[in-house]
Amino acid sequence: MSNHTLNAAIIGSTGYGGVELIRLLASHPYVNVTSVVSSSSEGTPIADGFPHLVEIRTDLLDGVDAKAIRAKADVVFLATPAGIAAKLTPELLEAGLKVIDISGDHRLKSPALYEQWYKKTPADEAYLAQAVYGLAEVYGDRVQGVDLISNPGCFPTATLLGLVPALAAGWIDPATIIIDAKSGVSGAGRGASLGTHYSELNENFSAYKINKHQHIPEIEQVLTDIAGKPVTTTFTTHLVPMTRGIMSTMYASVIGDRKDEDFVQLYREYYEGRKFVRVRDTGKWPKTKEVWGSNYCDIGFSVDPRTGRVTIVSVIDNLVKGAAGQAIQNLNLSMGWDETLGLNFVPVYP
Ligand SMILES: NC(=O)C1=CN([C@@H]2O[C@H](COP(=O)(O)OP(=O)(O)OC[C@H]3O[C@@H](n4cnc5c(N)ncnc54)[C@H](OP(=O)(O)O)[C@@H]3O)[C@@H](O)[C@H]2O)C=CC1
Ligand SMILES: CC(=O)N[C@@H](CCC(=O)OP(=O)(O)O)C(=O)O
C-alpha cells in the first residue's frame, strides 16, 4: 500500500475525455496533474480554450515529448483518438511512465481484429500482451502494480457490467444475447462532424455502425473469456440528442427458473463491496440522469416468464465510468489505493 503523491500528465487534454480527467483529478487526494499535453496547441494556456478552468489551471499546454513528460509526471493518461496510443506507448513506457490508455488501442488482444474493426495500424503484439484490460469490477484484481492499463470502452463498460454476473453464473444462454445501446453525443468526442452538429442531432434519433461498431470485438472478447467458449453477439448503437449518458439494454434467454429477485440477489453478491455498481430493486430501472457526472453504473432487471428472456438495463455516464472515472479507478487499483479515491461524486440531478 502506497500513499505517496503521484504526478500525472494527460495527452489529449483538450478533448472531452482529457478535460473530464482534469475535472475529476482536481479532487483526487493523491494525484496532481502536472502536465496537460496537446499536439496542436503547445505553449498556449489551457484555460484559453476552456474558460471553465480559469484560475483552476493557469498552466500552458505542453508538447508531446515522452522525456519532457517524464520530467514532470509519474503516470500518463492517453485520451487520444484511435491509432495514437499505439504509437506513443512504447516511448512513454521506455521513459519510465505508467500508462493508462483510454482509447481502444490496447483493448483487443488480437492485432488482426484491431486492424479489421478500427482500420488502423495495431499496437505491437508485445504491448497488447502486456496491457491489462481494466474493467474494474471484473478484472480489477489484475491491475495492481501494472504499468500499462487499457481502459474499457464506454459501451463495453455499461454492457459488460450488465451481462457478466449472469453469464458467469450460467444463468443466460450466451448464444442468445442481443445488445441495444444508446449514447449521448459527447461519446463522439469534441471534434465537429456532420452527424453530430445541432440540426442533424436535435429532434432526431438514429442507429449507427450497425454490425460494424468497433466495440463488438471488445464485448465479444470478454463474453468469450467469461463463458469459456466463443461468443458472438448482435450489438446496435444509437445516438440520442443529449450530452452525456449511455443506456445499454440487453436481452438473453434465461437458463433455469429465475425470477427478477434472483437476478437482483446474484448481481448484489457479485458486486458486493464495489461501490460503483448499484443494483436496483425489482421493478426499478435506472435512467441516465441518475448517474450523470458520477462513476456509478446502475443496473435493473426484468425476467419475462412468457418468453423465457431477461431484459437487463445498465446506465453510465460515458465520460466518467465510461472513460475518465474508470481510468482513475484503475489508477487507484493499480496503486493499491481505495478504488473510490477522487471519485466520490453524487450524480448531478436534475
Ligand atoms: N468521449 C467518450 O465518451 C469516450 C471516449 N473514449 C476514447 O477516448 C479517446 C479520447 O476521446 P475524446 O476525448 O472523446 O476525443 P476528443 O476528440 O474530444 O479528443 C481527443 C484529443 O486528442 C488530441 N490528439 C489528436 N491527435 C493527437 C496526436 N496525434 N497526438 C496527441 N494528441 C492528439 C486532440 O487534442 P490536441 O489537438 O490538443 O492534441 C484532441 O483534443 C478516444 O480514443 C475515444 O474513442 C473512450 C470512452 C468514452
Ligand atoms: C456517440 C459515439 O459516437 N460514440 C462513439 C464511442 C467511441 C469510443 O468510445 O471510442 P473507443 O472506445 O473505440 O475508443 C462510437 O460509437 O464510436
TrEMBL record:
Catalytic activity, EC: 1.2.1.38
SMART domains in alphabetical order: Semialdhyde_dh
Entry GO MF terms: N-acetyl-gamma-glutamyl-phosphate reductase activity; NAD binding; NADP+ binding
Active site positions, chain numbering: 154
The entry's keywords: Amino-acid biosynthesis, Arginine biosynthesis, Cytoplasm, NADP, Oxidoreductase
Gene Ontology CC, one term: cytoplasm
Gene Ontology biological process terms in this record: L-arginine biosynthetic process
Domain of life per record: Bacteria
Associated pathway: Amino-acid biosynthesis; L-arginine biosynthesis; N(2)-acetyl-L-ornithine from L-glutamate: step 3/4
Keyword Magnesium: no
Location in or out of the cell: Cytoplasm
A Pfam family: Semialdhyde_dh
Reaction(s) catalysed (UniProt annotation): N-acetyl-L-glutamate 5-semialdehyde + phosphate + NADP(+) = N-acetyl-L-glutamyl 5-phosphate + NADPH + H(+)
InterPro entries documented for this protein: AGPR (IPR050085), AGPR_AS (IPR023013), AGPR_dimerisation_dom (IPR058924), AGPR_type-1 (IPR000706), NAD(P)-bd_dom_sf (IPR036291), Semialdehyde_DH_NAD-bd (IPR000534)
Domain Semialdehyde dehydrogenase NAD-binding: 7-146
Gene3D superfamilies listed in its UniProt record: Dihydrodipicolinate Reductase, domain 2, NAD(P)-binding Rossmann-like Domain
Function: Catalyzes the NADPH-dependent reduction of N-acetyl-5-glutamyl phosphate to yield N-acetyl-L-glutamate 5-semialdehyde.
HAMAP family per record: ArgC_type1
Recorded family membership: Belongs to the NAGSA dehydrogenase family. Type 1 subfamily.
Record's protein name: N-acetyl-gamma-glutamyl-phosphate reductase
Biological source species: Paenibacillus cellulosilyticus
